[in-house]
Amino acid sequence: MSPPSQQARPQPEDRSPSPEIALSITTSPSKLVKLTDITNQEEDGSDTESPPPKRSRTNNEESGNYKGETEETQVINAGHQFVILYSLWLWLGAGTFKVEYDPNSNEAKHFENEDSRVQGQLQEIKQVLGPRLFSEISSEAWIAKVFTKGMKSQRSNTATRLRRHCATLFGVSDTDMLRANIRKEKFQECIGWVDDDHGSGLYSSVDVEILHKDNSKSYNIKTAFLNPIIIWVFLAIIWGPTTAKEAMNGILSNPKTDTMARKHSIRHTTPGAIAGSVVLSRWALFSDDFLQSVGTNTGINYEKDFAEYLEILVTGLWEKRKSVLNVFREWDRIAFPNSDSSLIGRNQDTSRGLKTALEMLKADEIEEDAIEDEDH
Question: Where do the record's region annotations for Disordered lie (predicted)?
């Protein structure tokens, strides 16, 4: 198989984004349901295509995390998980599924060029779909369509949740959160607006107050990605708004409902989860009404900003940079305090502790009387 750089890469399809969901102070629950239904249609707006086969999975089949469900439901759930943990968007849109997968692609070099970035996403898609369904993507066109449908519905649900149920996490009122003109007036500076001192300016992706733990308006490597708000946003996505609000007071409850964390067996933080939470936190306070790759009101390229955050986090993780490792350590501490899983080696730390304890036990004195009692 030729390396990715030598393959003929398909041109991206027309990705003019359809509105994910529009929210206003007057949106009624019934209209909200209709809007959500609309965003779950396919890219071309058609919902008349024959549904995919709904063959039941068995627990013995190697097919990802969704065993015992129909294949359609499994693929939709995989799309949900992909948005939460890996990426809000596909780099080439539907064209991503037409790129030949290179199993030998070097994960550490996924940001060298666009071809390698796409290979990185294909690896992640395989992770959430499972090997068998992933191998059928080229022959079963419905898989890509349904996967994309799952991604769109997850983005829509997240947009609804943040704007309608999470104002408290941002320290703002429900009314302010639902009015675009108020969001622009009140929150422009904290989400990256940089004035050029000539009556205009632009939005920065890194000189962002809400990105930093110390609310710095200039990029600070020691506090970037550590603002509690973006961590609470992630908690709201995987555990629910109530749990996120409790976390503001240092309490992390274990909801009895079927949360995204439980449904997808999410046990540690990922670069995509952090990058996505930053983008979603900024979008929630921007004047854009729709969660799209490019904002219609602001012109902000959210997908580009996401890619920049992702590159910083992945590069720092691979190179073991102290500042980035601390980000993952802090996110895991808050979001998954009882998990033994982590990308920065929490399992390894636990094993080292056990090894030390066993070595100390081996060096301990043996009680001879106890041995004699056993002989009798």
Answer: 1-72
What's the distance, CA 274 to chain centroid?
6
Q: Average pLDDT of 99-111?
A: 87
Q: How far apart are CA 354 and CA 109, in angstroms?
A: 34
Residues 6+ apart with CB under 8 A from 176: 167, 182, 183, 186
169: left (phi over 0), alpha (psi -120 to 50) or beta: alpha
What does the alpha-carbon distance between residue 125 and residue 151 come to, in Å, rounded to a whole number? 11
Q: Which of 128, 137, 47 is nearest to 96 (CA)?
A: 137
- Round to whole Å and give the CA distance between 66 and 176: 39
> Cα–Cα distance between 119 and 336 in angstroms, integer?
29
Q: How many CA atoms lie within 13 A of 6 on its CB side?
A: 5
- Of the ranges 83-87, 172-176, 211-215, the best mean pLDDT one: 83-87
Question: What are the phi and psi torsion angles at 70 (to 5°)?
Answer: -70, 160
Question: Residue 366 corresponds to which tokens in the numbers above?
Answer: 């043996």
Q: If you average pLDDT over each of 32-46, 272-286, 355-369, which comes out highest?
A: 272-286
Place of tokens 């003019």: 16
Q: pLDDT class for 371, splitting at 50, 70, 90?
A: low
Could you tell me which residues are beta bridge partners of residue 65?
A: 63
Q: What is the mean pLDDT of residues 117-132?
A: 95
Calpha distance 295→80 (Å, rounded): 22
Percent of the chain with pLDDT over 90: 56
Which residues lie across from 194 on neighbouring strands? 202
Beta strands in the chain (DSSP E): 193-195, 201-203
Whole-model pTM? Answer: 0.76
Q: Which amino acid is at 82?
A: F
d(CA 177, CA 103): 44
User: Coil, strand or helix: which one is 56?
Assistant: strand
In the chain the first and final C-alpha atoms are separated, in Å, by 69
CB 39 within 8 A of CB 20: yes
Give the separation between CA 153 and CA 159, rounded to whole angstroms: 10
User: Quick one: pLDDT at residue 176?
Assistant: 93
